[in-house]
Amino acid sequence: MKAAKAWILAKSGCLATFLPAMEIPMTRRRALKTLFCSSALLGHGPELFGQSRPAAGSLDLLALGDFGTGDERQKAVARGMARYAAGLGKKPDGVMFLGDNFYGAMPGGLTSKRWMEGYSQMYPAKDFPGPCWAIFGNHDYHDNRGGELVQLGYAKSLNRRTRWTCPAKFYRVDFPELTMLMLDTNWESINRRVHGDNRPCWMQEDEREAQLLWLEKELASERAPFTIVAGHHPIYSDANHGDTPELVATLGPLLEKHGVHAYFCGHDHDLQHMELEGLRTSFVLSGGGGARLYDSAEARAGSTVLDVHGFTHLSVRGGEMTIRHVDPNGKIVHAFTKGVNHDWKILA
């Protein structure tokens, strides 16, 4: 497993910390509309659909968002991820948690049993031994006052070795093939629209401004051949929440200017892929990790919307990035490739 060679650059305000990664164990409208198949069907792998496993790449990451329910839907997606990972022929190099990591109350904070039930046992080290890079969703801020600080604290606790990797609210991860810039998109105006004014659930304005300065600096710096940026909220979405105007205006131009290959997010509870006219960045939404599904809006040109639960596999192999959306049965429901020069092709 090569994740041990990755380095994390974490910056919050004026602080910078370098940490080694853990070494421990074209338009389709509602192409699929499902809730969950029977438990018998969920027990089958992709051979049920006449598919073969994709060949593992030099780098293989799994991603999912909006999963922290603790219910059977989350468990079904987690089981599907484990079966899919077992078929890769290698252990995944890591997992990206795209926010809404825990819904609802988390009694005990750092000592809550939900860390074991909803994370360590749900995504066990035997299946996912690499780092689990987490960013925050709106429910991580809202559902427990200071919940984002608890998740930061869990990652930094000195009395445990954990794959939970969240060194700051925004941070950088570098592999030889890929640079990942992990963001906190819980801005006041964005979260007020969802949660109102009764409970402040957003990063402070000075943090937001520091993050944008940091992002501009990192995008202007030397990076790997491929770059992805990840935040919980979508820049563009053809589902319940729709586009996020603040991110369209602020993040969108930065991604285009610096040739970011893909933006990963969640927030809407489905799987999406967008290639929008005039933009080089691919927009990948993976919000099907377990929370109830949302209805989709009418898909625009260049948009694929899949109203299904599932997760996403990002693979880099031979100078090409392949992104696959996978349902809980292990079926690849959508896939595309992306070249270093931003050429792309739909595979499935």
In words, what does this structure look like?
This protein is an alpha/beta fold and 348 residues long. The chain has one domain (3-346): Metallo-dependent phosphatases (Purple Acid Phosphatase, chain A, domain 2, 4-Layer Sandwich). Helices cover 22% and strands 26% of the residues. It has helices at residues 39-42, 72-86, 114-120, 138-142, 147-156, 188-195, 205-220, 245-257, and strands spanning 7-12, 15-20, 28-33, 59-64, 94-97, 132-134, 164-165, 171-174, 178-182, 226-230, 262-265, 271-274, 282-286, 303-307, 311-317, 320-326, 332-339, 344-346. A 10-stranded mixed sheet has the order 2-1-8-9-10-11-13-12-14-3. Strands 7-6-5-4-15-16-17-18 form an 8-stranded mixed sheet, covered by helices on one side. The longest helix is centred in the middle third of the chain and has 16 residues, at 205-220. The chain is globular and about 50 Å long. The relative contact order is 0.19. Residues 1-52 have low confidence and may be disordered.
In short, what is this structure?
The chain is an alpha/beta fold. It has one domain: Purple Acid Phosphatase, chain A, domain 2 (4-Layer Sandwich), CATH 3.60.21.10.
In the predicted model, the low-confidence regions spanning at least 5 consecutive residues are 1-52
Number of strands: 18
The chain-level mean pLDDT equals: 86
Amount of helix: 10-25%
The CATH topology annotation reads as Purple Acid Phosphatase, chain A, domain 2
- Quote the beta fraction: 25-35%
Return the CATH architecture: 4-Layer Sandwich
How do the SSEs run, as a string of H and E? Answer: EEEHEHEHEHHEEEHHEHEEEEEEEE
Helix vs. strand class: alpha/beta
* Overall shape: globular
Q: How many structural domains?
A: 1
Q: Cα distance, first to last residue?
A: 28 Å
Sequence of strands across the biggest β-sheet: 2-1-8-9-10-11-13-12-14-3
| CATH homology-level superfamily | Metallo-dependent phosphatases
Round the Cα radius of gyration to an integer and report it: 18 Å
Main pleated sheet: 10 strands, mixed
- The top-level CATH class is Alpha Beta
Count of discrete alpha- or pi-helical segments spanning 4 or more residues:
8
